[in-house]
Structure formats: structure tokens, C-alpha cells
Amino acid sequence: MDLRQLRYFLAVAEERHFGRAAERLHMAQPPLSQAIRQLEGELGIALFHRTTRRVDLTEAGRAYLERVRAILTEVDQAADHARRVAAGSVGLLTLGCVGSATYSLLPTLSRHLATELPGIDFSFRGEMLAPDQVEALRGGAIDVALLRPSAADPSLVVHTLRRDRLVVALPAEHPLAAKTRVRAADLAGLDMIMHSADRRSVMHDVVLGVLRDAGIEPRIRHEVGETSTLITLVAGGLGVAVAPEPVTALALDGVVYRPLVRPTASVELAVAHRADRDEPHLARAVEVIRRLL
């Protein structure tokens, strides 16, 4: 038997008349009658009591009808789900977010994703360094990353979203806090708090490049893995830090932010996913992210 036979049976069972069932199915009555007899032959049971005026279900037919309705409902739901998957309307995605963007972007982005792609279940991992995000993408722990790109990687598709200016995070009582802007040269001789070199942080290399371009060899007092820890240590008066401007959304008592004066004092923010991933729901999520940011 096939699904067509089941739908034929359902129409006859609900109409209790071969003529009306044939009309409902947009087919001639003789082929319908023949299909029902073939179904009964395959099952080895009578599904209907037939008279010249009407058709009634047998006891076995009533039991069969209940199961057929359940089967066809499941089939229809499966087909609808498959169509939604093909359209990128359903799925599961985990998004990893670099530290500074966690505070400034993730609250708004998560709301937009939930509104525009309600059939996709999103989970989020914040405070991830770019190398950790790349490893998580490759291993499948995350599906999409908002990261600070470094060297080109052929295993990833990377779309630059924007460039974020760099700012200096200062203890509120620091003398430089009185300035409206801070030059890289102003950081000479100061205790610096930086993202970890051991964990291959992109920001570590960016900040190191900015300082060395200004002729400064930084005096690094602490290296940390999380941007929130970076700013917390600044609030504690343990040093100053250079970070992307979105970090200013992390407002802590005892910290002020000042723009870093340098013609190219900025760092890219990008969205990335594995090059071998082409699922429709992932593509739609990346499209939303690119449009919003």
C-alpha cells in the first residue's frame, strides 16, 4: 500500500459514498473503487460494508481509520517541517560572541533574531576570544561567530560587518581621565592590562601594534582572557587598557573611557561560519546579522 491508497480510504470513510469521495479527490469513481478493493485485498480484510446507497465502515475499518488519520497527520506535519527546513525557517544555532560585542550587541541582536527567525532556536556563548571561536566553529561547538578576524582562513567564510574605534579604559581618578582624548604616546610607562597573548588574542596583537607604532614598549601588568575582567581590573586601579569602543556598554563604577587618537585606531568586527556549512537556517541568520550590523 502507499500514501495515495490511504488518502483514498480516508476520503471514502469520511464521505461514506464512493461518488462524493471521487468528486472530492477529483477522480473517476471506478478507479477509486478499484483502489479500495486492492487495499482490502492487500490487508486481507473488509474495510467497508457496501450498499447501493451508501458505504459503512466495518469494525476493522473503524480501527483502521483511526490509525490512518494519525499516519496522514504525521506525514503532513513531516512535509510541512521539511518545507520549513528547506526555507531556513527552523533549526538550532549556537552563536559565539567576542567579549566587547557581548555587552553592546548581543542583547539587541538576540531580540532581533528571535523576532525575525522565530522558528530557529538560538543559544549564545559570550566572552569568547577569536582563536577559541575559530576552534569552536571547526569543532561544531558553535555555528556562527561574531569575532575580530585575524589571518585569512580558507576553512571559514568571513564577512566584515564594521570597524570599531579603539578607546582607552582608565581608572576614574587617573590623570588621563581629565583629557577628552588620549594619544598612544600618553600610555608610555603606564601599567597595562591586556588580553592574553598565551590564548592568541587578536586584541593583544592589535594593542601591541598600536603602542609599538607609537614607539612604546608596553609595561604589561596583567593579561586576561575576558573583556569583563579587563575592565574590572581597570576599575580596581590596577592599570589602563585599550579595547574596542563597544566595551563602553560595560559601565562600571570607577572606570572612564576616552577615545584613542590615532588615524587607524580601530579593529574589525566580522561574522563567520564554516565554509562547508550551507544550511538555509544558518544562511538566514547570517543575513539578519549582516543587515543589522
TrEMBL record:
One GO cellular component term: protein-DNA complex
GO molecular function, one term: DNA-binding transcription factor activity
Residue ranges occupied by any HTH lysR-type domain in the UniProt entry: 1-58
Record-linked Pfam families: HTH_1, LysR_substrate
Swiss-Prot/TrEMBL keywords: DNA-binding, Transcription, Transcription regulation
Entry's family note: Belongs to the LysR transcriptional regulatory family.
PANTHER family documented for this protein: HCA OPERON TRANSCRIPTIONAL ACTIVATOR HCAR, TRANSCRIPTIONAL DUAL REGULATOR HCAR-RELATED
Name under which the protein is recorded: LysR family transcriptional regulator
Organism: Streptomyces argyrophylli
